[in-house]
Amino acid sequence: MVKRRRGTGGALGRNNEPALLILTSLASGEKHGYALLRDIEGFAGIVLGPGALYGAIARLEERGLIEPVPSEDRRQPYRITDFGRTALADAVNEMRSLANEGAVRLGLRPPARAHPSLPIGLGGLG
Amino acid sequence: MNLDRRFDRLLRWYPPSWRERYGDGMIALLEDAYAQGAVPWRVRLSLARTGLVERFRASGLVGASTGRSEQLRAGSLLVLCAWSAFVVAGSIFAKFSEHWSSSTPPLHRSLASVGYHIVEGAGAFGAVVVAVAALLALPPFIALLRSGGWSSLRRPLHRVAIAGAAIAVLTAALVIWAHALSSHDRNGALVPYEAAFLFWSAAVVVAIAVTTGSVVAVVGRLDFSYRKIRMLSAMALALVASMMAVFAGVVLWWVQEASAAPHFLANNIGDGIVATSRLFPPAMIVASLLMVLGLAAATGGVTRLTRSLHAKGGPAPSASR
Asked: Chain B closest CA to A47's CA: distance in Å?
């Protein structure tokens, strides 16, 4: 069973891949549905279906992680909320921590605590 | 067909509230992505699947519900859906096993008979539980009608009425035809009648599904007191117990028949009828699979119910009385 320890209480949910992709995309600015699909395909190489995209958008909106931007166009843009940024930062830190641990255990880098003063991600350079 | 209507049709799987909220955005996305060509079947199927998921979410059957009352209501409705699967399975079982005793040696009938009577008794108990639950739901239903809620109930009730009328007409036609046939013809010898019977069976299954969906939609709009929701939840748990008993009875009957009268399970109608039915073995397998499916749904409902009943805190805000 997966347990989350951080302050946003696992707000992205357990099945969080589309949610993470959408939040990551929106972190660089507001986008409508089609722009989200293209952006996600560009940075992650993942093609989300329209149903999966809007299902995730609805869940993210319900949880207050994103919000619609007032628009005259039918292409409804969305932006990330402050809570969404915090949740995304938590998720990113969690993944980074897991990636660091995996790298250490694979012998790709020495344990990070050997250089506690260095930021996460640079620990292996010393 | 213009683009809007073409894409709008793809969203028919979604509930109306969803289409109202996200329909324009999704149609705009589909226009951007597929205006120049056909929408791939992969995308169409994906939209159908996600649309049905959203319908289940909208009815509260899946997804996170907001409060204890909503959880209890959703759990109870999930159990009701499981019961519908058992109604279909039980009907198949009753139809195809009705002459079992004449095909089974008297010495080997006792255990199979116990299983059969368990199925009958538990099925009747479940039907009574559902009837009492319907009576409990009647006052809130009338209250909703009196408060001008007819417009929100019209569509599901129309669907039930149409399904009921269609089944009545089909049943009458089949019965009239059946009375003009010999027992031999009715039991597999006359292929057109067998095809008509299959069609009627499929129509009954669709009618049960439509009725269940409509009941779920209507109950979702009713305003229950927290006390009444707890009563309905307890009845849902009793209904699950009856489903488990039905399943156990079917398994006991099946095992006993398989050892004592394998020819009956293989094809024979029994009771002195020499005709055989090609439908018997697959029908009994479908009935058993439906029961397993129903039990899986019931387990989901029970999980919701027990979690909510054991959760700390008061009733949800929606429980008004």
From this structure: 11
Chain-centroid distance, C-alpha B103: 31
The span from the CA of A110 to the CA of A99, in Å, is 13
Look over chain A and give the mean of its residue pLDDT values, rounded to a whole number.
80
Contacts 24+ apart (CB under 8 A), A94-99: A94/A4, A94/A6, A96/A120, A96/A121
**B100 and B8 together in one domain:** no
CB nearest to B50's CB, from A51, A73, A76:
A51
Mean pLDDT of all residues in B268-290: 66
**Whole-number percent of chain B with pLDDT over 90:** 25
**pLDDT given at position A56:** 92
Question: How confident is the model at residue A36, as a pLDDT?
Answer: 94
Residues from chain B contacting residue A54 (CB–CB below 8 Å): 22, 25-26, 29, 50
- Do B115 and B251 lie in one domain? The reply is yes
Closest CA to B29 of A47, A59, A35: A35
Cβ–Cβ under 8 Å, residues A7 and A83: no
Domains of chain A, by residue range, sit at 17-105
Asked if B28's CB is within 8 angstroms of A49's CB, the reply is: no
Statement: the pTM of the whole predicted model exceeds 0.80: no
Evaluate whether residue B321 is within a structural domain: no
Q: Which domain holds residue B20?
A: 3-52
Contacts of B49 in chain A (CB under 8 A): 51
Residues B103, B13 share a domain: no
Q: Which of A34, A54, A60 to mutate to test the interface with B (most CBs of B within 10 A)?
A: A54
Question: What pLDDT is stored for residue A10 in this prediction?
Answer: 54
> What pLDDT is stored for residue B169 in this prediction?
95
Minimum-distance CB partner of A33 among B21, B28, B49: B28
CATH code: domain A17-105 is 1.10.10.10
In terms of phi and psi (left: phi > 0; alpha: psi -120 to 50; beta: otherwise), the region of A9 is left
- How big is chain B by its Cα radius of gyration, in Å? 23
* pLDDT score, position A113: 59
